[in-house]
């Protein structure tokens, strides 16, 4: 297996990214931890520059926008995340903060909501999650998936990429302070399941759309909306991470249901063909 240059290069790439990410997060230095989120792109640069494959840049999937329906699917997935937060609000796991906690000069929830909207959806503010998602996805769904798919087939490649992407995120849990409440082991288990499931879906999205941009849009949208809702519903129970956020049970159930429907529809379409 490792006599094949594709397997060697992809394995070396994954080991370098995951190893460097762990090292940068272990430093505890905020700037280096920020760089730890960019390792898929930083490691990718020499792999692209020193490769002799003629279509290495086109394989990344950035030259095509992709069909609009995949952006609609992304919006639905992001919408389900919003519904998950609303369910957690209704069931009492999260709450809007009382007016006594508002900044000076702010009297009601509508003013606070508008301020958060203007802040989070200012073009300059929204550019950050897009760039981080772009740099990350160029490595995983752009480079790794494109290189492996001719060798492992679509299903094998999607599963392999999901496993590697899950391992890449472990430093965010162990050393990144990603969760500030809830039980560490339970949070880690739920997050691992969520990342794996989401990665499988994003892998198929990348393949069927023949573009990396819908995946980038979905990745950035989930991260950004999650941060927005986290601030909006500022008061939370310690167990809130078990039910909402990108790895809560409400979210996992909603996403799994949608992904199952899409898979069944896609499978039926292939059988008809």
UniProtKB/TrEMBL annotation:
Pfam family, one: Rce1-like
Keyword Membrane: yes
Chain segments annotated as coiled-coil in the UniProt record: none
Keyword annotations from UniProtKB, A to Z: Hydrolase, Membrane, Metalloprotease, Protease, Transmembrane, Transmembrane helix
Segments traversing the membrane: 12-29, 35-51, 71-94, 114-135, 156-178, 184-205, 212-235, 247-264
GO MF entry, a single one: metallopeptidase activity
Domain CAAX prenyl protease 2/Lysostaphin resistance protein A-like, first and last residues per copy: 123-224
Biological process per Gene Ontology, one example term: CAAX-box protein maturation
UniProt xrefs under InterPro entries: MmRce1-like, Rce1/LyrA-like_dom
Protein name in UniProt: CPBP family intramembrane metalloprotease
Organism per entry: Polycladospora coralii
């Amino acid at each position: 297996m490792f006599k094949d240059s594709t397997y060697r290069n992809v394995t070396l790439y994954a080991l370098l990214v995951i190893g460097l990410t762990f090292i940068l997060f272990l430093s505890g230095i905020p700037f280096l931890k920020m760089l730890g989120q960019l390792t898929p792109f930083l490691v990718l640069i020499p792999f692209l520059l020193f490769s002799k494959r003629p279509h290495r840049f086109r394989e990344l999937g950035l030259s095509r926008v992709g069909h609009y329906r995949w952006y609609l699917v992304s919006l639905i997935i992001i919408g389900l995340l919003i519904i998950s937060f609303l369910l957690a609000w209704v069931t009492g796991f999260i709450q809007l903060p009382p007016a006594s906690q508002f900044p000076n000069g702010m009297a009601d929830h509508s003013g606070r909501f508008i301020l958060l909207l203007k802040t989070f959806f200012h073009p300059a503010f929204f550019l950050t999650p897009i760039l981080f998602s772009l740099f990350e996805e160029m490595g995983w769904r752009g480079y790794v998936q494109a290189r492996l798919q001719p060798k492992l087939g679509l299903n094998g490649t999607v599963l392999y990429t999901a496993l590697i992407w899950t391992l890449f995120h472990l430093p965010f849990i162990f050393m990144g302070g990603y969760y500030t409440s809830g039980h560490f082991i339970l949070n880690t288990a739920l997050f691992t399941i969520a990342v794996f499931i989401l990665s499988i879906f994003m892998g198929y999205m990348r393949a069927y759309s023949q573009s990396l941009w819908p995946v980038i849009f979905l990745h950035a949208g989930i991260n950004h909306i999650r941060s927005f809702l986290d601030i909006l519903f500022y008061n939370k129970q310690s167990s809130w991470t078990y039910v909402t956020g990108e790895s809560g049970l409400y979210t996992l159930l909603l996403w799994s249901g949608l992904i199952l429907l899409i898979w069944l529809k896609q499978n039926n379409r292939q059988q008809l063909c």
